[in-house]
Amino acid sequence: MTPLISFRDAGVAFGSKQVLEGLNLDIAEGEFVCVVGASGCGKTTMLRLIAGLHPPSEGVVSYAGQAIARPRPEIAIVFQDYGKALLPWRTVSGNIELALEAAGTPRAERGAIIANLIALMGLEGDGGKFPSELSGGMQQRVQIARSLAQRPQVLLMDEPFGALDAMTRQGLQDELQRLMMQQRMTVFFVTHDLEEAIYLGDRVIGLRRNPGRIGKVFDVRIGRPRDQVATPEDPEFLRIRRELYDFIRDTEREPAS
Ligand SMILES: Nc1ncnc2c1ncn2[C@@H]1O[C@H](COP(=O)(O)OP(=O)(O)OP(=O)(O)O)[C@@H](O)[C@H]1O
């Protein structure tokens, strides 16, 4: 089967600095892949390659067998900084509508789609509010709803819950898990939080740095739905957690640049 996303000997250099090197990775449709690694190892750059925001300096990154040359409507991004991602002068509905405008969805069809997404993300009653009237967690729900309005096959998430408090983060992790199970989307998720990566991922990719490269891949063979209390006590979770911490500790001994 053709992987949905594949990296073939892909690398990125900024000037004389090799940031990513020799990336080889296949991501299957419907897979949830998390990427972890020490600060500056190239996680965001890897995500930007899939997003079509940056070309590889060598090798190929492809989507459904085609080299990714520019952003594509099938691939949506959710950023950590919801404060900057949302337009403050537009309401929740207006922000979600942005994606529909970009996709050329006829005006008459937009209301029903927006109402569905508002319900899906638990934002009922908030459609007319402005971002400044919402908590961080709610704003991040709006950003996710807006990404889903694009009807993507792939969701790229760059530390989407990194700025949220622990309770809100856990709630959104479970929302995301539910969405993925319902909609069979493929997710590429960058995080600093090792437990979050294991909790959400089918696979966790551990990057080494300088230059950034794939150091170790962890398969997470834990059934779904996962549970915030039971899953972190699962022996498989604990085993991967130990290995992942050892791996990260080891990579942090490598020089940053
Ligand atoms: N546009 C750019 N020009 C020059 N260097 C860049 C550019 N973008 C990223 N870099 C460098 O590439 C390296 C990897 O950056 P990247 O943001 O991908 O790492 P990261 O793993 O996501 O970091 P963090 O965990 O701190 O967010 C860093 O050394 C960064 O300074």
From TrEMBL:
User: What InterPro entries does the record point to?
Assistant: AAA+_ATPase, ABC_transporter-like_ATP-bd, ABC_transporter-like_CS, ABC_transporter_ATP-bind, P-loop_NTPase
Which terms does the record give in the GO molecular function aspect? ATP binding
Q: Which domain of life is it from?
A: Bacteria
**Record CDD domains:** ABC_NrtD_SsuB_transporters
Pfam families under this entry?
ABC_tran (PF00005)
For this UniProt record, the keywords arranged alphabetically read as follows: ATP-binding, Nucleotide-binding, Transport
PANTHER family named among the record's database cross-references = ALIPHATIC SULFONATES IMPORT ATP-BINDING PROTEIN SSUB (PTHR42788:SF13), TAURINE IMPORT ATP-BINDING PROTEIN-RELATED (PTHR42788)
Q: Which family does it belong to?
A: Belongs to the ABC transporter superfamily.
Q: What is this protein called?
A: ABC transporter ATP-binding protein
